[in-house]
Write a structure and sequence with these properties.
The protein is mostly helical. The chain contains eight helices and no strands.
Length: 201
């Protein structure tokens, strides 16, 4: 009898501890949690690749590319993320898709092939995790259908510009990876202001 009581008590304590760590009204594992890990992994490798692609050069060239940018109007401020994150997350997925296309293009540049090899798997993993997160949101599925229909406008690049375009793209990818890691620092961005999410990281 004493053994059964102690097992019951242990089970209740375990359930109580789990409840303390779970944000109120949210499942313990939501579809955005994996983005936290994969965004940090991309950030780590993108930083390394950005430095390597620069190869000591201080040359800065502006390119007209088809890369999609994050903008102030994308509603990625903490308060909007807490209330309605679909717009920001959908745009982030658009930008990530754009980087995926840009990195694929760089694979054809001999001067950039090593950088592409290093970053490709992390980029694909983050895209997969973020797609799942966006789909889990109310309007995520509709947005993704729209995103996938975009066409990239590819401009020819002279041989001498290839290394500069590689450096430019890897630098932009690194900057975006910082932004992504911050937005998904607690998994679902809606949890940024919840103390319980911070305690359980």
């Amino acid at each position: 009898m004493m053994y059964v009581c102690s097992r019951t008590l242990a089970a209740l304590l375990w359930l109580f501890a789990a409840a303390c760590c779970a944000p109120a009204g949210q499942p313990v594992h939501d579809a955005c949690v994996d983005v936290r890990r994969s965004s940090l992994e991309l950030n780590d490798i993108a930083h390394t690749v950005s430095i390597e692609a620069r190869n000591g050069s201080k040359d800065v060239t502006d390119f007209t590319t088809a890369l999609v940018w994050m903008e102030a109007k994308d509603m990625c401020d903490p308060e909007t993320l807490k209330q309605k994150s679909e717009t920001c997350l959908g745009k982030m997925l658009d930008v990530l898709t754009s980087y995926g296309s840009a990195v694929e293009r760089l694979a054809g540049f001999e001067s950039c092939s090593e950088s592409v090899i290093k970053v490709t798997n992390k980029l694909h993993k983050l895209h997969q995790d973020m797609s799942k997160c966006v789909r889990s949101k109310k309007s995520g599925t509709d947005h993704q259908k729209e995103s996938n229909s975009r066409k990239e406008d590819i401009q020819p690049v002279d041989l001498w510009e290839e290394a500069l375009l590689c450096h430019y793209t890897m630098d932009r990818l690194f900057s975006f990876s910082i932004f992504t890691a911050r937005v998904f620092a607690v998994g679902d961005p809606a949890h940024h202001t919840e103390g319980s999410a911070q305690r359980c990281m």
